[in-house]
Amino acid sequence: MASLATIFGSGAMTNSIREIEGMEVIFIIGSNTKETHPVIANRMLKAIRNGARMIVADPRRVPLVRFSEIFLRLRPGTDVALINGIAHVIVKEGLNNKEFVIARTDGFDKWKESIESFTPEYASKITGIPKEEIIKAARLYGGSRKAGIFFTLGITQHTHGTDNVNAIANLALLTGNIGREHTGINPLRGQNNVQGACDAGCLPNV
Length: 206
Known about the structure:
The chain is an alpha/beta fold. It has one domain (2-189): Dimethylsulfoxide Reductase, domain 2, CATH 3.40.228. It has 11 helices and 5 strands; from the N terminus they run H-E-H-H-E-E-H-H-H-H-H-E-H-H-E-H. A 5-stranded parallel sheet has the order 3-2-1-4-5, with helices on both faces.
């Protein structure tokens, strides 16, 4: 998680799993959470029972899709196009957290230029997801101030894995869904308790 360490100072989850149940929107991308991280998946299901809404982005119909409001079935390897397409809609519709962006980020104007071509139509052609679903996901995530993103090897294990993580980080920063309770960017690692084993001393510098 070198990318997250560079951006946020740590390559681990930015928030505690205890906060999941208080989230309004849960965005899962590149993760079969129910099978690989069942404890976290159970907390997500509790959040849904509490009224949370879920977005799942994955080439596969993973088990949590049946609990999701939006399923973004993208072509493998098109994660950056999807995330940038969502970000494009958020900026265009003014859903970004302007105060947070001004106070806590750098280079917004240059980044904004870099995603101008990622219209919902363009992102749809690349990802195979209907543009209406991309817009719907953008409005759901961008309209919440208690939204968390969760991902695992489906995002990181690519030749462009760093680009994937950077795009996710930019999306969270764009909306201000970082640095507060019930928000965050939460990599779930390859299997359950990998992070715990590292924190316990196997890899104390991670």
